[in-house]
Amino acid sequence: MKKAVLLAALLCLPILALAQANNYEITVNRKKAGFNQSNKDAITSSSQTWSGEIKIRNKSFKPSPEIEVQYVIFIRRQQLGATAGSAEHVEKVKGSQKVDTIKSGETIIIATKEVKLRAEKLDDNWYFSGGGIAKAEDGILGVWVRIMQDGEQIAEYVNPTSLKAKQKWE
Known about the structure:
CATH class: Mainly Beta
Oligomer: single chain
Distance between the termini: 43 Å
Radius of gyration: 22 Å
CATH topology: Immunoglobulin-like
Helix content: 10-25%
Largest sheet: 5 strands, antiparallel
Structural class: mainly beta
């Protein structure tokens, strides 16, 4: 009898975790914060500053417990003049914020850290004698958000969904 009750309790755990994940709706929007452009020594450079807004809506009929919202923004960085094989790497911008509670039906907004994306290119008729790339442009590969409660992950958002297969949270 005790084994049957224990087995039934263990089988319900994934359902409980899934129910908690369904209690939250997570979206992320980009916000452009600034833009600069300059031209020096045959190189045109520009930079844009971006941040994100993580919106979390409590879809349950009761207030949420205390949670922690963790995020990672994945940025592709390219280097002007580098050879094609070594021209880019991925940078991770991490952040987290604790949230006391979210009322039933309420949406909260968490601002991410700002990231600066650069773009550089050689002016026309200029090139690198070693064959390095003449145009380098940073870009946001995606964002990954986790909602944690008491050290356990209870919800997750990944955009684009393919990011999870290509990158690691670490």
